[in-house]
Each structure stands twice: as structure tokens, then as C-alpha cells.
Amino acid sequence: MKETIKSLFLTLLVVVSMVQSYYLIYRLPGNDPIVKSESEYVEAETMGIPMEVESMIFPAQMVIHMGDDRHSVFYPESTFYNLINSRLKGRQFDGFQRYALENINWADIRSSHEGIELQFDGGVPVALLQKVMQISPDSLFEAESISKILIYNTENEDQVRVFFFSNEGGVVYEATKVDLTVQDVKQQINFGKDWVPYTLVNGYYIPDEPIDMVETGLNVDLYTAEQMQRSLFFDFSITRYIREKNGSEIYTDSKRSLQVRQDRNWMNFTDPAAPSTGDNSPSKNVVSAVDYVNSHGGWSGKYRLEQSEGRDDDKHLAVFRQYYGAAQYGAFPIIDLPTFHYGTITLEMRQGTIVGYERSLLYTTEGTWSKKVVTLQGGKELRDKIAVISKEAIITNLYPAYLPSLTKEGLLLQPTWVVELSNGATRVLN
User: Fold this and answer.
1) What is the rounded distance in angstroms from the CA atom of residue 16 to the CA atom of residue 86?
2) Fewest CB atoms less than 10 Å from the CB: which of 112, 310, 384, 419?
3) In degrees to the nearest 10, what's the CA dihedral of 406, 408, 413, 415?
4) Mean pLDDT, residues 66-91 taken together
5) Are 393 and 422 a contacting pair, CB within 8 Å?
6) Rounded Cα gap, residues 154 and 113, in angstroms
7) What gap in Å lies between CA 401 and CA 199, rounded to an integer?
8) The Cα angle at residue 223 between residues 220 and 224, in degrees rounded to 5
């Protein structure tokens, strides 16, 4: 009898111990476990605006070729840019053939033929272009990334030719089946005849007249380090804080690391041990990057996919550039400066999984505190300034942009010309 009582008592003690352990691990009320798995991660508070990848695929600029070496340039969000872009989105492109780039005189085509040129700069994977244009599937073409699309009327054949330029260089793809007529192209070319004339110089375009932009002061706010921790770590309570000598604040959960530079309003998050999905396609990487930002900070305004490229270490880099502007003058990129990081969101991926994430902690809010029209120089005055810079290296691009600075009132966006050089340097013409 005594042995039976002892056994029952020991059993009771074991049950009580198990119940106490359960309550220690799962803190009541609410069944909130101290130990969490990453699959149990609850999405953080919504901070910025969620966006779709389709809204970020658009040309950096649209060049109108009018023949007789006459050109004009339309910028994003301007009336004619939007009109032409919307019409081209509805056209079908099919029957791709591949050619060597050097076999065609492109300078002569741009100078003597009527046409439209869509410039994407850093290149867009074809699979992403297919989200915004009617491009038929083609096994030869789909692995490419496109930097430019040139549409023009032939002089004698009375037909429209369309070429897609590979971002890797060396080859172009012609869409031999296109539902565009010569008259379609002529109607769109007419939009440029009364616009600011540009001159083609060594592959880039210089306005013959000054152009107008709007200098704007925007209201801004700042994401806190705590907000970013809650957004980026699946269990915010176990992060440790480290302060470096250079003023950086580092938060880590032993797997991931968040570096915050309060003096620069900038953050850099790394997750080197993140499990990969096994899919390393450029287009899916970009989509994953957009989804990641949607869930971890969101977007502040309008962005364009500026760069999408693979790395030798099996990683992929995606850079998104912020644009600002309106229909009357157009939207223009905001420059990311070494002295003031703002305007870009950069993500590094490995086989579809985010392993690096950089962005500004500043974000714009509603309202402006300043707005005025500013005239940027053109013609001889601009040519003289460019001539000085050309002594440093070959000029590869020229475009208007916004120079950001932080003032007591908020974010000031000042119009400026930006020159890109063959050595990778960027020069701002204040």
C-alpha cells in the first residue's frame, strides 16, 4: 500500500513539474511563447507604402527622334511621356531575331530616322518587362536584361522596326512581328516637334535651350532604430546592442545584424545565414526584393528599378531609385550622395533570399514647405560646363536630377544636371 502511495505521489510531482514548465515557456495569458521559430514570425507594423513591382518598371527617359538630326527628350510622369508609354504597353512584340550590335550603324539610324527610344539605363530582365509590355515568350530572348528599346520607321521599306538592346552589350534582338504601323510612330513623334530640342553628342543628349524643373521642400520624418528592429528581427526581445567607435549602433540576434548610422540617417541590415530558396532568376529576385521592402519599412513615394545584376559569388543586386515630380515638368531621380545618403533602396539576394538591405531612415510625409520653378541651363552654357568635365573622362550620360539636402524645415530637392563618366564617377553641375 505504501509503495502504491509513493508511486502516485511521484507521478503527481512529475505532472505538476510538467505543468509548471509549460507555463514558464508559454507565458499566459495569450499563449505568448518565449521560444519562437522563424516560421511563427508575425509581420511587423506597416510603416511605408506597399508597392507592386510593375509600378517600378518604366524608362528613365524617352527620346524622340524626328529625322534630320533633330531630337527631343520626355521624362517620366510628363504628359507626352505617359501618353506614348501607355500606347506602347498595348502593342504586341514577337518573333525575335538576334544580331551582333556592331553590324548596324545606330548613330545613323538615330539621326536620320523617325523613331522612339526607351532608355532603361541599368537594365531590366525581360521577364519583368513582360509584366508591363506585351512581349511574347521566347526562349532565346527571355534570359536577357534590356537597357534600351529603339522603335523607328524605315525610309524605303515603309515598315516599323523594333530593337531590344541587351544590357550585357554586343547583341540586339529585333521583334520581327509588331502591331505598330508607320502612322502610329509618326503620331507619337509629332509630340516632340514643339518641345525642347536636344542634340545627340557621343551617345547622350544636350538640350539646346534651358529646361524648367520645380525646386521643392518636402516634409519628412524618421524611422527609429526600434521600429527597424521590430520590422527586421523575428524576435525583437533577444537582440543585443553594440556601439562602435565611429558612431554606428549595431543590433544583433547572433544571426542577423542591423547597423544604424544616426548621423547619416542610414541603416544597413545583413542576414548572411538566411536559408536560400534555390531559385536565382533575376526577375524573381527583384520581385522578392520588392515584397521584402513592402514588409520591412515600405516605400516613400515613386521608385524605379535602376539596377539589376548578378554577382560572381552567386548573389544578385537590386537598386531602386526614388523619383519626384509632376506631370507639367516630369519626374526626376533623386541623387544618392556620399555625404547624404538618400534616394536609393538597395537589396542583395542569394537565390531568392534577402541577405542585405540598405536604405535611408528618412521618409517623406504629406505636404510641402517650399516650391518654386527653377531653370536649368542649356545650349552653349551647358556645353561649356560639360567640356570641362570631359577632360577628366569620356561622358556616357547627362540627365536632370534632384540634389537632396536636409534643412531645419525638412528635405530640400534642388534641380541640377548630372554627368556620368566612363570611369564610373558622377559629377553634379550645381
Assistant:
1) 70
2) 384
3) -100
4) 95
5) yes
6) 7
7) 19
8) 135
Query: What secondary structure, in 3-state letters, does 361-400 show?
Result: CEEEEEEEEEEEEEEECCHHHHHHHHHHHCCCCCEEEEEE
- List C-alpha distances in Å: 107 to 69, 104, 115, 164, 397: 10, 9, 13, 16, 15
User: Does the pLDDT of residue 292 top 90, yes or no?
Assistant: yes
What mean pLDDT is predicted for residues 424-429? 92
With contact defined as beta carbons under 8 Å apart, do 363 and 48 qualify? yes
Strands (E) across 138-232 are located at 145-153, 160-166, 171-178, 197-201, 204-207, 211-222
Which triple of cell numbers denotes residue 32?
A: 505568448
Report the alpha-carbon distance of residue 365 to residue 372 in Å, rounded.
Answer: 19
Residue 234: all three cell numbers together: 523575428
Percentage with pLDDT > 90 across the chain: 67
pLDDT for 234 equals 75
Is residue 302 within 8 Å of residue 324, measured between CB atoms? yes
Tracing cell 548573389 back to the chain, one arrives at: 315
Residue 171 has which C-alpha cell?
A: 547583341
Model confidence over 390-424: pLDDT tens digits? 999 999 999 999 999 999 999 999 999 999 999 98
| CB-based contact 209:197 (threshold 8 Å) | yes
User: Contact, 354 vs 288, CB < 8 A?
Assistant: yes
Considering the domain 271-359, what is its CATH architecture? Roll (3.10)
Per-domain residue ranges of the chain: 56-195, 271-359
pLDDT for 83 beyond 80? yes
Structure-block grid coordinates of residue 309: 545584376
Calpha distance 182→159 (Å, rounded): 6
